[in-house]
Amino acid sequence: MDLPLYSLAERDRRWDLARELMDAENVDALVVYGGRDNSGPGEWAPDVFFTNDRPGAIVVFPRADEPLALVRSPAHIGDHLKASACGDAVWIRPENVLVAKHAEGVAEVLHAHGLTRSAVGVLGLEPWPPFHADPLMPYTLWASVLQQLPQLTFKSLDAGFVTRALVQSAEELAVIGHAAAMGEAMAGAMLRAVRPGVSEASVYAAGMAESMRRGAGAPGMSIASGKELVSCGPPAWSYRPQAPRVIEDGDLVLAEISCSYGMRETRQRVAIAVGDIHPELESAAKTARASYEAGLAVLRAGHTFGQVVAAMKQPLQETGGWYAHPLVHAVNPCGPVCGSGARLGLLPETARYGLLAEQPTIGSDLPLSRGMTFVLAPTCAYGRRLAGLGGTVVVGEDAPIELNTITTHLMRSN
Asked: What residue spans define the domains of the chain?
């Protein structure tokens, strides 16, 4: 199988993007916090954006030089050595890989490049919705850097990075397309596994096994099943000691799956009807499809993210439905996200909770550009019966490009 790969031209494009960002913000370097080691799909991995290497580094990128990767342990060096020996696309020279992922390492690298009195841009000081409500840069780490370099000034550049990185190159779109194909295969395996008497864990295992068999990077899944669903999150048996639920005739199996390849991510929302489901679930799925189509109609260059959100809300507002999850959000990287949780408070049982607040829409003013990727995955609920569907879509030249097909409709088990 011919797999899409990144060339040195893609490396140079990304490094040029960083330098353009530094020029625009009048800073002399970037400090990029890449989160924890093996951070999973591309929810937060800007270090990999610049290194094309194992996640979990702090990247220091002087404007006048090449980026340096500060890694946690010698194991990263071993991975880098192996990649070089195998002829993999290694972007960071060995001289620029340091086992120094700590405040002292950041300070020493900035000092070595004469940047102790400079303005430095930082990625990692802002929230990264919808998956990270708080900044990922540890307070103690950054506070220690500033203590060691008291004449350093810094500026958070997360928003500027997101705006620039959202527009995918041709090479990135090929990688994203491959990730979407793995997501399709994952959903197909789940569909084949669903039948009465099978547990949620078996369906989960079928999807995850298929994605891993195809080489997906850190696939993920939320899953729920039943005749009444008000949400879909990590399976309860993954965090609470209890047996996985056994699927019954008349159930709806609802899942959100993610696949990544080359740290480019796609997401799909799966809905599988097991036999005849309740009419309200059928109606919810129909409205979710209408919301998906409304989003497609507006997902055009020149429109804003807020216009897509407004269009996708309309079918739910017209039918009295509510939604528990964001109808749409950006991906590669994440950032702009539709608000969620509207009208959940109409359920009488929610009156007992201490505080129920709707999450607001973030990034409404973002202008859409060709090559941006979004997850259109609307849910609709009538009372306690919720259904959803959708997949990953690219803003195209004249029309949006749907990367998924089977998950954008209600599926039915045989």
From this structure: 8-165, 170-412
